[in-house]
Design a protein that fits this description.
This protein is an alpha+beta fold and about 625 residues long. The protein has 30 helices and eleven strands.
Length: about 625
């Protein structure tokens, strides 16, 4: 009855990261599997996979009992098979799976397809969704609905898409939706007839209300029908409804699942009026059955909407907002094309690459479409995409990431117990380190005179909502911002104490050294790095300050000395609160670098911290 993307048994954080990580684990698992190892219930191979999931923090349930473990191993890996990435019984990675592995290892999220202007990992998931094994041509059917509505659906219509295969074609589905006959079309007529017959005889069975999860809900429906609705029909005593609303055990299940479909009122008196009207209606018997059926469909559809949103977001073409779901402006052009099915077929079966569909730059129809948007070259197309992103980014920042909000978010990084709140406030599709990088980029855009491009230049992978997403294999986490007289490198870290010493002491200076060697000598002299972390280790501070004396070289050149400015998240919050711009801060930073104090922790405490505390507040927060 329902066709959707994803798996209701699998609710994971960081979906893309989870997909990529699991595929890398299966590569390891299958490579080491013996000839006699089998992927079957309770098998040692499934237990080995469970242990890999646990070792890589991909399994939230830590119960190591065999039954639970093998079930978890099967359920968590099922979507990879649905997307034709693995074949667990054959113990192999598919051709499509190897394509994704190659993209992951080559960090293809940093490479855009020229024609669609989307990163290659997103393009791969668009391809995989077009080849979705669980329901043939499902994405194509969804896209046909989008095509009819010129690339934009109301949220309500999108929610109903999992019902599409119950109809002959897209037009009949839309007709039923517009005429509000979807529920009547799908109503199980035989069960309705049986229910009406039993109602006359006052002899009920649970069969017509049973679900895949059992008959507990069905029993509660029959109980509520008999002791509330039918009882009222006989006595007309409104105290029955009053007791029904107040009762906290017997009818709780019915009220939780179905009451909202009878009344949405807040006051008890208004609820009783609606219940009375519903029960006294001429067609109560049919209405009651339809109510249960409609409520179940709607509750399921809301569940599947969440899955569809998360999985289709991987494709890089869907934009979700409060009241609608849209396709990206460039992908709307694909659906406008007279040969859109041929184009989608190429996306589904051709290798994922930067050049895929590039031949259509010379297509007559696309030239006309591009002309409407003043696009005459690849450069124009890139500019158009960037302008679209900046507009959407401006709206996102205004709605979600004001200075006040960012100050609060920054404070949450000081305690890892706040991880769930951070994901709720920023994105559930990114790990906390990725969220930290994104938040620092947002803060820096404010410091740099509201320059939105700083967010796009931060070397981050963003989804179609321009929120961060994490990958199993990441690259360098530093941002490099070019200015007229210098370049600024910002490197961020959530590491603490010994971990910070191991992870950052060598890498930050190496990244900065390589950057300085790549610049003109005059520009290199003015360039520096800022290191930002919630916690600053004293010996990391000492190491960073000692770099003013160090040589760094490659095969062609060398530099002597480099400047690294350490800031805690509290320091950054003070800077943001001060409303001083980067232009105004830069001379203060250069003064700090000239300071004669070379004892790092002392330099930080007596010079850097003091300068930041003395900043004051220039204007009110905007």
């Amino acid at each position: 009855m329902y066709d959707y993307f994803g798996n209701t048994s699998l609710r994971v954080k960081h979906l893309l990261y989870n997909f990529e990580s699991q595929l890398l684990l299966f590569e390891e698992l299958f490579k080491n599997a013996g000839k006699n190892d089998t992927w079957s219930n309770d098998s040692s191979l499934q237990m080995q996979y469970l242990e890999l999931l646990q070792a890589h923090n991909l399994l939230e349930n830590r119960n190591k009992s065999k039954d639970l473990g093998t079930k978890d191993a099967r359920v968590k890996s099922a979507p990879l098979e649905d997307f034709n990435l693995i074949n667990r019984k054959e113990k192999l990675i598919t051709k499509q799976g190897y394509e994704l592995l190659s993209l992951i290892k080559n960090q293809a999220y940093k490479i855009d397809n020229d024609f669609l202007q989307m990163d290659l990992i997103s393009l791969f998931f668009l391809k995989a969704s077009l080849n979705f094994k669980k329901s043939e041509n499902l994405l194509l059917k969804y896209l046909e609905i989008f095509r009819i509505y010129k690339g934009e659906l109301s949220k309500e219509l999108f929610i109903f898409l999992p019902l599409i295969n119950n109809f002959k074609d897209a037009k009949s589905f839309i007709k039923a939706f517009n005429e509000k006959t979807i529920f009547k079309t799908l109503l199980p007529k035989k069960d309705l007839e049986l229910f009406l017959k039993d109602l006359k005889e006052q002899s009920f069975r649970v069969d017509y209300f049973k679900t895949a999860k059992g008959d507990n809900t069905a029993h509660n429906i029959i109980l509520t029908l008999k002791e509330v609705f039918l009882k009222y029909q006989k006595s007309k005593d409104k105290k029955i409804f009053e007791n029904f609303l107040q009762e906290r055990q017997k009818f709780t299940l019915f009220k939780r699942l179905y009451l909202a479909f009878i009344t949405a009122k807040k006051k008890k008196e208004d609820k009783i009026k609606d219940l009375t009207h519903f029960t006294e209606a001429k067609d109560f018997n049919e209405n009651f059955f339809e109510l249960i059926f409609k409520a179940r469909i709607m509750n399921n559809l809301k569940d599947y909407f969440d899955l569809n949103q998360r999985y289709l977001s991987l494709c890089g073409i869907f934009e979700f907002s409060a009241d609608k779901v849209s396709l990206s402006e460039i992908f709307k052009l694909i659906l406008r094309h007279s040969k859109f099915k041929e184009l989608l077929e190429k996306l589904a079966f051709k290798p994922t690459s930067k050049e895929l569909l590039s031949e259509y730059f010379e297509d007559k129809e696309f030239k006309e479409f591009f002309k409407e948007k003043n696009i005459f070259s690849l450069k124009d197309l890139k500019t158009y995409k960037k302008e679209q992103e900046l507009k959407r980014l401006k709206n996102l920042v205004e709605k979600k990431f004001s200075k006040e909000n960012l100050l609060y978010i920054l404070s949450l990084f000081e305690d890892r117990k706040n991880d769930d709140e951070l994901m709720n406030l920023v994105s559930k599709e990114a790990t906390i380190p990725t969220i930290f990088e994104y938040v620092i980029a947002l803060v820096w855009h404010y410091i740099d005179e509201n320059n939105l491009e700083r967010i796009l230049q931060a070397n981050l992978s963003l989804d179609n909502e321009l929120l961060p997403k994490s990958h199993a294999l990441g690259g360098e986490a530093d941002f490099v911002y070019p200015y007229e007289s210098h370049s600024l490198m910002i490197e961020v870290s959530l590491t603490q104490r010994a971990n910070q010493r191991r992870a950052e002491m060598e890498s930050v200076s190496r990244h900065l050294g390589n950057l300085l060697l790549s610049l003109e000598p005059s520009k290199a002299k003015q360039s520096f790095a800022i290191f930002i972390a919630p916690y600053l280790d004293k010996n990391v501070l000492n190491d960073f300050r000692s770099r003013i004396y160090c040589y760094f070289e490659n095969e062609q050149n060398f530099i002597k000395g480099m400047h690294i400015l350490p800031l805690s998240t509290r320091d950054l919050a003070h800077i943001l609160r001060s409303n001083l711009s980067y232009k105004e801060l830069l001379p203060k930073f250069y003064e700090l670098f000239k300071d004669k104090e070379d004892f790092g922790s002392k330099w930080y405490k007596e010079s850097i911290s003091k300068m930041i505390q003395d900043l004051g507040v220039k204007n009110e927060l905007q």
